[in-house]
Amino acid sequence: MARGERILVVGPAWVGDMVMAQSLLHLLRERDAGALIDVIGPPWSVPLTARMPEVRRGIALDVRHGELALLRRWRLGRSLRGAYDRAIVLPRSFKAALPPWAARVPLRTGFAAEGRRWLLSDPRPLDRAVLDQTVKRFLALGLPVGAPLPGSPPQPALRVDPANRDALLGRFGLGRAPAVALMPGAAYGPAKQWPIEYYAELAAAIVADGEEVWVLGSAGERPLGERICAVAGPGASNLCGQTRLEDSVDLLSAARAAVSNDSGLMHVAAAAGTRVIALYGSSSPRFTPPLTARAVIHYLDLDCSPCFQRECPLGHLNCLRGITVAAVKASLG
Q1: 186, 245, 241, 286: which is closest to 52 by C-alpha?
Q2: Pairing, β 236-238 against β 122-124
Q3: HSE of 243, CA atoms in CB hemisphere, 13 A
Q4: 1 pLDDT exceeds 70?
Q5: pTM to 2 decimals?
Q6: Which whole-number Å values give the CA distances from 164 to 124, 170, 254, 273, 302, in the listed order?
C-alpha cells in the first residue's frame, strides 16, 4: 500500500484558530486517508492537537506570544529536514514560514504576506472577498489553486477523554446538577468581553434555577470568576487557572450549554459538542463563527461594529452592553 503524503502544518497561535484549523486537517485526511499530519504550534495551543484524530504529532515551538525567535524557529525547521513532502503555513507572518523553509520541505504553501514569498514555493494571493472567513482561508490552502471550497466546512470535533472528565468532576465536586459553563474572558481584549456584571447576574439566575455554573478561563481570568461566583453564591465554581486546555474540552463536553465571548474557549466548546451561546461585540460572527449547528449567536450589528479593536474606540461598548441578560438567559432554554 502506498504511503500517504507527509504533511507539516504550521498552526495558529490563537486557541480558537487552532480549533478551526481542524477543519483543514479533516479535509486533508478526506483527500488522502493515509496522510501523516504533524502540526507545529506554541505551547498554549498545540495541546489541542492531541485531541484531533487527524494529527499524528503536535510539535511545540517554545515561544511567547508575538515573539520573533527567528533562530529558534530556524533550528526547529532544521531538525525536521527530510521528514515532509508538503507544508501548509496558516499564519500570514514571516516568522511562521521560516520552519518549513529551514526544513527544506519541497512544497510550501501559504498566503503571500510580509515579504515572505521567497520562503514559500507556493505563495497564494488572499482574496478577502471570496475567503471571507478564517476557516475558508485555512481550507483554501489545503486545496489546489482554483479548486472549489466545500459547501460547508467540516466541523471541528475534539476527542473527549471520559476517564479524565469523570476525574475532573470528582476532583472539583461537580456534576450533581445540570451545568452551564461561562467563559467571561477574551485574550484579544476587553472589546470582546460581555460586561462581567452581566455574567454575574446570569450566573445568579442559573443557580437560582437549581443548576450549576462552571466558570472557565486562564489563571489571569481568575478574578473575573471570583466576581461572578461572589454574586451567584453556592452552586457556582471558579475553575479559572485550575485546568489545562485539554481539561476544558472534557469539562465542556459535560456541560449542557456554554455562554462565551468570541474567544478560544467558545470554539473549544463548539468542538466538544456543547450547545454554545456566543456573544459578539467588536468581532463578527460572519468572520469567525462557532463551527457547529448547536449555536445561538447574539450580535447587535451596530453601525460601529465590527471594529476589530482590542478596546472600544468610542468608549461605550454598546455592541455588548446592549445584549441583555434576559436575552441570553432565554437562549439557554
Answers
A1: 245
A2: unpaired
A3: 25
A4: no
A5: 0.95
A6: 42, 10, 11, 17, 42
Cell digits of residue 66: 508575538
Q: Percentage of the chain with pLDDT > 90?
A: 95
Task: Give the count of beta carbons closer than 10 Å to the beta carbon of residue 4.
Answer: 15
What is the pLDDT at residue 236?
98
Span(s) in the chain for CATH 3.40.50.2000: 6-141, 162-332
Give dist(CA 131, CA 92) in Å, integer.
14
Q: Is it true that domain 162-332 has CATH number 3.40.430.10? A: no
Residue 267: which of 319, 195, 280 has the closest Cα?
A: 280
Residue appearing with cell numbers 485539554: 246
**Region 6-141: CATH code:** 3.40.50.2000
Residue 95, C-beta contacts closer than 8 angstroms, at least 6 positions apart: 68, 69, 70, 73
CA angle 288, 289, 290 (to 5 degrees): 120
